[in-house]
Specification:
This protein has 204 residues and is of the alpha+beta class. It has 2 domains: 137 residues, Electron Transport, Fmn-binding Protein, Chain A (Pnp Oxidase, Chain A), CATH 2.30.110; 49 residues, 2-Layer Sandwich (Alpha-Beta Plaits), CATH 3.30.70.20. 22% of the residues lie in helices and 36% in strands. The chain has 6 helices and 12 strands. Strands 1, 2, 3, 4, 5, 6, 7 and 8 form an 8-stranded antiparallel beta sheet that branches. The protein has a two-stranded antiparallel ribbon with strand order 9-12. The protein is elongated and about 70 Å long. Bound molecules: iron/sulfur cluster (2 copies). One iron/sulfur cluster (SF4) binds next to helix 6.
Length: 204
């Protein structure tokens, strides 16, 4: 498994209670849910068929998930989901999350459906180090965008952006360079550049 993806999935499993965002009649909706199973092929969650959450997922099979641990390391993943026809995945999720037996004992688990985020993009943002570090990954055939602002050939090496950067991740050169994995994506460098030489970050 891609090491960044593995780290992100592990973090979401350890944080356990993560925010899961969906779309509800064109508006954002969010709830806390447990990241119940992380495998090479993606993340698995459970929900009950009667919940608005379930209906939203049926209507729009996309979710965004994020969580942060006690060290201020966060992970987020956005992607596509599908419901699992194979009921054995529900049993597997119960094996990995035994407290579910208290909530849905015995056959009561039959109301639950497992969904699988099988394709997506993600990012780990580590605020425990200085400057913060950003790592991206993709899975299931998605491609990842490079992180951070980017300085283009229009740069005349005047140096104004160096002072504007709060975390010191711009290096001098004929064309100045941003360390994209450590860039906060705050945009200060772009605002002060007299040559319009700085391109905004693309997002995941
Ligand atoms: S402010 Fe603009 S032109 Fe000046 S060094 Fe930075 S990127 Fe280059
Ligand atoms: S976007 Fe912000 S953090 Fe990134 S290089 Fe520019 S000033 Fe620095």
């Amino acid at each position: 498994m891609d090491q960044t993806k593995k780290k992100a999935f592990r973090l979401l499993r350890e944080v356990k209670s993560v925010a899961v965002a969906t779309v509800n009649n064109g508006k954002p909706d969010v709830r806390i849910a447990d990241a119940m199973l992380a495998q090479e092929d993606g993340l698995y969650f459970l929900t009950a068929r009667g919940k608005p959450y379930y209906k939203q997922l049926k209507e729009n099979q996309k979710v965004a998930i994020c969580g942060m641990d006690k060290n201020y390391v966060s992970a987020r993943v956005v992607g596509d989901i599908q419901f699992c026809n194979d009921r054995s995945i529900v049993d597997k999720i119960f094996e990995h999350n035994p407290m579910m037996n208290d909530l849905y004992p015995g056959e009561k688990r039959d109301i639950l459906e497992a969904f699988h985020m099988y394709r997506g993009k993600g990012e780990i943002f580590d605020l425990s180090v200085e400057p913060p570090e950003r790592e991206r990954f993709a899975f299931g055939g998605e491609a990842v965008n490079p992180s951070g602002y980017r300085i283009t050939d229009k740069c005349v090496a005047c140096g104004i952006c160096l002072d504007a950067c709060p975390v010191g991740v711009i290096s001098e050169g004929e064309v100045y360079i941003v360390d994209g994995n450590r860039c906060l994506e705050c945009g200060s460098c772009a605002e002060v550049c007299p040559e319009d030489a700085v391109e905004a970050a693309q997002g995941m």
